[in-house]
Design goal:
The protein is an all-alpha fold. It has one domain. Helices cover 73% and strands 3% of the residues. It has 11 helices and 2 strands. It has a two-stranded antiparallel sheet with strand order 1-2. The chain is globular. The termini are far apart. The relative contact order is 0.13.
Length: 292
């Protein structure tokens, strides 16, 4: 088997396993299980981010950052699950303030970090880049009304989001591999092409229509115009998210965030595009559709 085919089938196997886990948690209606999967992915991705920086000789406060991320994720989940959505923003600001207080106090009494301002900057950026952006998936789950038995309905919009985002990634990869001729952002990722970008938008748009055709009652908040706008908007954001991680990896002088997922890389490589599409879907549903 050629290296190209080996990578393709490894990526396909990893994707199938991950999709199976996602579908099981979505259709089970068990919100704690669904959140546990999301929290694990967010924390694993953040750890990979800190690990990349450390391997490149960039100091970060890994343990403090991981603890802060866990508090941010778990606390945010408990707040939105308890129907206190107005308190989530105050809670997130409180966590950030306490994190900064902890970091500066630690540096004051230990003085181990030779470049504390740089370490603080990279650590705080990691918190915003991974767990905070990824936490919008949890917020989407509780954005739509619950059923009479208390079951959530927002997980189907998360399923829609993940499908559209991943189809964008897949379309960019397939179209770029088959037809790619014109570089899209060579200073960031030489393999990205305009043909791949077009494939990403086409694939995400088609997936948007397809998901609604499969689950019209579960995605009843959408209309044809919303499906078109979101298909293109999320497809574009997925490309930006992929390039954003390329910038991070280029800065850390590494190819993949880890080798945990054969054919894909690490968890951060898996969710990089979702980090940008999740907030966009949340704010679209909140402010354009008036949900929540």
């Amino acid at each position: 088997m050629t290296p190209g085919r080996l990578i393709f089938f490894s990526r396909l196997l990893s994707t199938l396993v991950l999709w199976t886990l996602l579908l099981v948690t979505v259709f089970s209606g068990w919100d704690v299980g669904f959140f546990s999967l999301l929290a694990f992915m967010a924390l694993r991705a953040l750890w990979e981010y800190y690990r990349m920086l450390e391997h490149d000789g960039i100091g970060v406060f890994t343990l403090t950052g991981m603890l802060c991320a866990a508090v941010l994720l778990v606390g945010g989940f408990l707040i939105v699950r308890s129907n206190w959505p107005d308190n989530i923003h105050d809670f997130e600001l409180l966590v950030l303030v306490l994190f900064l207080l902890t970091i500066f106090s630690r540096q004051m009494f230990s003085g181990k970090e030779t470049d504390p301002l740089r370490a603080i900057s990279y650590t705080v950026f990691g918190l915003f880049y991974v767990p905070w952006l990824f936490s919008f998936l949890t917020k989407i789950i509780y954005l739509t009304p619950r059923l009479e038995n208390g079951m959530t309905t927002g997980q189907y919009y998360v399923l829609y989001l993940v499908a559209v985002t991943k189809f964008s990634d897949m379309g960019a990869y397939v179209f770029g591999s088959l037809f790619g001729r014109h570089p899209f952002a060579p200073h960031i990722s030489p393999k990205k092409t305009w043909e791949g970008f077009a494939g990403a938008l086409i694939s995400s748009l088609l997936c948007s229509y397809w998901m609604y055709a499969l689950l019209p009652q579960k995605l009843s908040a959408f209309r044809i115009g919303d499906l078109t706008i979101l298909g293109l908007l999320l497809g574009f954001a997925a490309v930006v998210g992929d390039l954003a991680e390329s910038i991070v990896k280029r800065g850390a002088h590494t190819k993949d965030s880890s080798s945990m997922l054969p054919g894909i890389g690490g968890t951060l490589d898996l969710i990089d595009s979702i980090l940008f599409t999740a907030p966009l879907l949340f704010f679209y549903m909140r402010f354009v559709l008036g949900i929540g």
